């Protein structure tokens, strides 16, 4: 018999799927602008620019919603490192590398009080509190290049800002692949995806 725990309130689900679609649009148009031959673009260059600009602005607004949601609801408590995080990260990594194949019990069972295991917690904190803000701030800076006031080695900081933006975009793309893979480790391969639609996490 499986047990259901309500972990994902409506606002988190709405934020999450809006964020996911926008990130996918940003990654696809970003890759198209960065790598494809201008003569034979993956997506027409001017379309990529417009979609990237609109999706980027919507993502930044949606991100503000995430921050306020976490500040004013109890969801924010899941985004704080607790004592012993380093040891807990090791215990969770050992479980994924070994214990899970030996059918051991998960070392940090999911509950209403603690809905992320230590590795999830670390990756969500880094992505949501470091990578997404950096990509959004550098994106806004590139959007207004004429406003850039500071110089790096005698040049406008545009190049450096652009490099940081692309690296962070790459980090978020890598996160996405790992994130989706780890989401398949649930009661069934699809149960975690269902929980992000109906709000209920299913466990043994
Ligand atoms: C197609 C893309 C995506 C899919 C299918 C997906 C799937 C999921 C699923 C199933 C969960 C619930 C299970 C869990 O907590 O691990 C989840 C949670 C989460 N995802 Fe994603 N995700 C996607 C994109 C993203 C992106 C692009 C980000 C961030 C840039 C992201 C950040 C998060 C966060 C922070 C949570 C926890 C939310 C909370 O409960 O507070 N996801 N995702």
Any overview of this molecule?
The protein has helices at residues 10-35, 45-72, 85-97, 118-143, 158-183, 191-198, and strands at 3-6, 151-152, 155-156, 200-203. The chain contains six helices and four strands; from the N terminus they run βααααββααβ. Helix 1 runs antiparallel to helix 2 and helix 4 (118-143) packs antiparallel against helix 5. A two-stranded antiparallel ribbon has the order 1-4. It has a two-stranded antiparallel ribbon with strand order 2-3. The mean pLDDT is 94. It has one domain (3-203): Transmembrane di-heme cytochromes, Chain C (Fumarate Reductase Cytochrome B subunit), CATH 1.20.950.20. A hairpin with a 2-residue loop joins strand 2 (151-152) and strand 3. The chain has 204 residues and is mainly α. Bound molecules: protoporphyrin IX containing FE.
What keyword list fits this structure?
Fumarate Reductase Cytochrome B subunit, two-stranded antiparallel sheet, elongated, 4 strands, 204 residues, 6 helices, two-stranded antiparallel ribbon, binds protoporphyrin IX containing FE, mainly alpha, 62% helix
Trace the largest sheet across and list its strands.
1-4
Unreliable parts: none
Q: Quick one: overall form?
A: elongated
Hetero groups bound? protoporphyrin IX containing FE
Query: What would you report as the Rg, rounded to the nearest angstrom?
Result: 20 Å
User: What is the correct CATH architecture?
Assistant: Up-down Bundle
Total domain units: 1
């Amino acid at each position: 018999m499986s047990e259901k725990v309500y972990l994902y309130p409506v606002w988190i689900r709405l934020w999450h799927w809006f964020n996911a679609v926008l990130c996918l649009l940003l990654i696809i148009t970003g890759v198209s602008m960065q790598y494809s031959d201008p003569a034979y673009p993956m997506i027409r260059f001017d379309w990529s620019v417009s979609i990237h600009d609109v999706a980027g602005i919507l993502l930044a607004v949606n991100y503000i919603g995430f921050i306020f949601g976490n500040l004013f609801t109890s969801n924010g408590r899941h985004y704080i490192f607790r004592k012993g995080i380093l040891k807990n990260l090791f215990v969770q990594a050992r479980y994924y590398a070994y214990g899970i194949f030996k059918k051991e019990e998960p070392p940090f069972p999911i509950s209403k009080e603690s809905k992320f295991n230590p590795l999830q917690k670390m990756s969500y904190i880094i992505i949501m509190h470091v990578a997404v803000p950096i990509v959004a701030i550098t994106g806004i800076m590139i959007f207004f290049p004429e406003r850039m006031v500071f110089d790096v080695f005698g040049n406008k900081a545009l190049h450096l800002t652009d490099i940081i933006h692309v690296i962070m975009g790459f980090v978020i793309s890598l996160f996405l692949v790992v994130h989706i893979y780890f989401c398949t480790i649930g009661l069934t391969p699809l149960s975690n995806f269902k929980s992000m639609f109906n709000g209920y996490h299913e466990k043994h």
